[in-house]
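User: Can you recover a sequence for this backbone? Please restate the input before giving your answer.

Assistant: Of course. Working from this structure:
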């Protein structure tokens, strides 16, 4: 089995993957990177890939998925495949490309400086919509509280300017895309865009799923990892 490297989304730590990790063979090599560890460059991730005895599978959620796409373009030899969860190649809308309005991210940055708690609570509500997952949302908020405001702003600034669309057609690695059909943070249409331009990709939409799939649908993520490996004929 290939090593797994998990890349978390904005405002979260490796704890976001706890439910996924519990469903994976305890003997399997798993590494975890916070999105903060990969910005602005990916030096720590690149070192990890270089140290590995064999190519790894990158599992990226949200912002972590965007980091995974960039990594697959920069050092594909160290990567066996990608599992992208609620991910996007570009966060903000441009022309006919679906995404959030850039002014929304800018507004979040401004409001973080004035009323951080309100921003995080609103984000959690959107991430866990459409379900009623109050205990999970509270866990999510606690995790987000471990980051200082400057780090959270840096993550939003990265999302507001990063555009990996031009990299997609050159990524030939096998990719599994898992996206919530009702994702209110990164729309399902953005998942479809990835599937359209990643030539070796498969898209699975989760009925009733929102953005926080590592919390609400961990088994679906495990299944995508297994399907990626089965397609490659790995043990």
């Amino acid at each position: 089995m290939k090593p797994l490297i998990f890349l978390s989304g904005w405002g979260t730590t490796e704890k976001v993957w706890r439910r996924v990790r519990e469903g994976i063979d305890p003997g399997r090599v798993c590494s975890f990177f916070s999105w903060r560890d990969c910005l602005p460059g990916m030096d720590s991730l690149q070192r990890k890939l270089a140290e590995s005895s064999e190519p790894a599978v990158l599992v990226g959620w949200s912002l972590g998925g965007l980091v995974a796409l960039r990594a697959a373009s920069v050092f594909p030899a160290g990567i066996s495949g990608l599992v992208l969860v609620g991910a996007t190649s570009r966060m903000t809308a441009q022309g006919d490309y679906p995404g959030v309005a850039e002014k929304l991210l800018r507004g979040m940055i401004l409001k973080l400086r004035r009323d951080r708690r309100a921003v995080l609570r609103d984000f959690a509500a959107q991430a866990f919509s459409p379900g009623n997952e109050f205990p999970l949302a509270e866990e999510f908020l606690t995790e987000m509280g471990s980051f200082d405001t400057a780090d959270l702003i840096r993550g939003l600034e990265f999302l507001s300017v990063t555009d990996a669309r031009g990299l997609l057609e050159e990524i030939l690695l096998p990719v599994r895309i898992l996206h919530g059909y009702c994702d209110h943070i990164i729309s399902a249409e953005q998942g479809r865009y990835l599937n359209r331009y990643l030539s070796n990709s498969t898209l699975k939409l989760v009925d009733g799923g929102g953005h926080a799939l590592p919390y609400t649908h961990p088994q679906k993520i495990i299944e995508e990892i297994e399907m990626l490996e089965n397609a490659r004929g790995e043990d």
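That completes the design. The CA atoms of residues 204 and 213 lie 12 Å apart.
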